[in-house]
Specification:
single chain; 305 residues; 11% strand; eight-stranded parallel beta sheet; two-stranded antiparallel sheet; TIM Barrel; globular
Length: 305
C-alpha cells in the first residue's frame, strides 16, 4: 500500500458509546468495517468529530491500539494526537509509530481560549513530533484559535520532513489552499478539504486533492473528489450539488452527532449516545436528518440491517 498518494476521501470515525457512557469496543470495530465498505481511502481516528475531547488518556491509547490493529492495513489510519504539551504529542506519535500507524494529525498547540502557541512554538512542536518518523497532517482548524499563516505552513512543509499534508478548514479555505499550493509547490503533498465537505467543490477548484468529511456519506463524497481529479469537472459538480443539501444539514444542524444518528439507524452501532455535557441531537433535527438521508441511501444507513 502506498501512502504517498494523498487523494480521495479520508473521513473521521465516530467513537460509539454504550448508553451507560462506556466505550463500545465492538461497535468501534463495526464502525471501522463499515467505513472500509464505504470504500474510503483512509480513516482518521480520535479527531474532534470522534469526540476526542471527551476521552481519557487511557481510552485514547486503547482506541489507538484497537483501531490500528483492527484495520490491519486495509486502509491507512490517521491518528489525531493534538495536545498543548509537546511531550504528550510526541508520546502519542511514538505510540502510533510503534503500532504501525501510517499518519498522525495535529492542530497547533492551544489550551482554552487564551493559551495559544506562537508561530515559533508551533513550528518547534511539529518539528519535535516529526522525530517520531510518522507522516504528519497539519489541521488548520478554527477550534484552536491559532492563526496558521501560509508562510508558517510553507516553512513547516519545507523544513520538517514528515509534514506532508494540510487539512484547511478555516474561513475562506479555498483562497488559503490556492496560496499554500502556489507558495509551497511540491512540498504540499496532500492539500485537504475539511468541515464535512461544506466548501468541497471550491476547495477542489483551489487544488485540494483530498477530503476529510465525517463518516456519514463518504461513499457519496468520494466520487466528487475522484471525478474532479480525473478532469470530469461537470460530473463532479453535479454530484456535489446533488448531495449538498445533506452535507449542509449535517454541518449546520447536527455536527458530529449526525454520523452516529445515521449509523444507529443503519444498524452499524447500537447507540448514538454522547457523553455529558454534549446533549443528544434535538428530536426534530434527528427526524429531519434521517428523512433527508433516506433520499440518498448512503451505505451507513443500511450497512448493519
Amino acid at each position: 500500500m502506498s501512502i504517498n498518494k494523498f487523494i480521495g476521501c479520508w473521513p473521521v470515525a465516530p467513537t460509539p458509546f454504550h448508553l451507560n457512557g462506556e466505550i463500545d469496543r465492538d461497535g468501534m470495530k463495526r464502525v471501522l468495517d463499515c467505513m472500509v465498505d464505504q470504500n474510503v481511502d483512509g480513516i482518521c481516528i480520535l479527531a474532534n468529530y470522534s469526540e476526542q475531547f471527551l476521552l481519557s488518556d487511557e481510552e485514547r491509547e486503547m482506541l489507538t491500539r484497537l483501531c490500528i490493529e483492527h484495520i490491519a492495513g486495509r486502509v491507512p489510519v490517521i491518528t489525531t494526537v493534538s495536545h498543548f504539551s509537546t511531550d504528550v504529542v510526541f508520546s502519542r506519535a511514538k505510540l502510533v509509530k510503534e503500532l504501525g500507524g501510517e499518519m498522525i494529525m495535529m492542530m497547533a498547540p492551544y489550551h482554552g481560549a487564551l493559551m495559544r502557541g506562537t508561530p515559533d512554538q508551533t513550528f518547534e512542536q511539529f518539528s519535535k513530533v516529526g522525530e517520531a518518523g510518522v507522516t504528519i497532517m497539519v489541521q488548520d482548524a478554527p477550534l484552536s484559535g491559532v492563526d496558521l499563516s501560509v508562510p508558517l505552513l510553507v516553512k513547516m512543509a519545507k523544513e520538517i520532513e514528515m509534514v506532508k499534508c494540510f487539512k484547511i478548514e478555516c474561513a475562506q479555505a479555498a483562497a488559503k489552499l490556492r496560496v499554500l499550493i502556489r507558495e509551497g509547490g511540491d512540498f504540499i503533498e496532500g492539500p485537504f478539504d475539511g468541515e464535512e465537505g461544506i466548501t468541497l467543490f471550491a476547495d477542489l477548484e483551489a487544488g485540494a486533492t483530498g477530503n476529510m468529511s465525517s463518516a456519514m456519506i463518504p461513499d457519496l463524497i468520494r466520487p466528487v473528489v475522484l471525478d474532479f481529479l480525473d478532469g470530469k469537472n461537470k460530473e463532479s459538480e453535479e454530484k456535489y450539488d446533488h448531495i449538498l443539501p445533506l452535507i449542509n444539514y449535517e454541518n449546520r444542524q447536527c455536527g458530529f452527532r449526525a454520523t452516529k444518528v445515521i449509523m444507529k439507524e443503519g444498524g452499524v452501532i447500537n447507540s448514538d449516545f454522547c457523553r455529558h455535557p454534549i446533549p443528544s441531537l434535538e428530536e426534530n433535527s434527528r427526524k429531519g436528518l434521517i428523512r433527508l438521508a433516506k433520499k440518498y441511501n448512503p451505505i451507513a444507513l443500511h450497512w448493519g440491517k
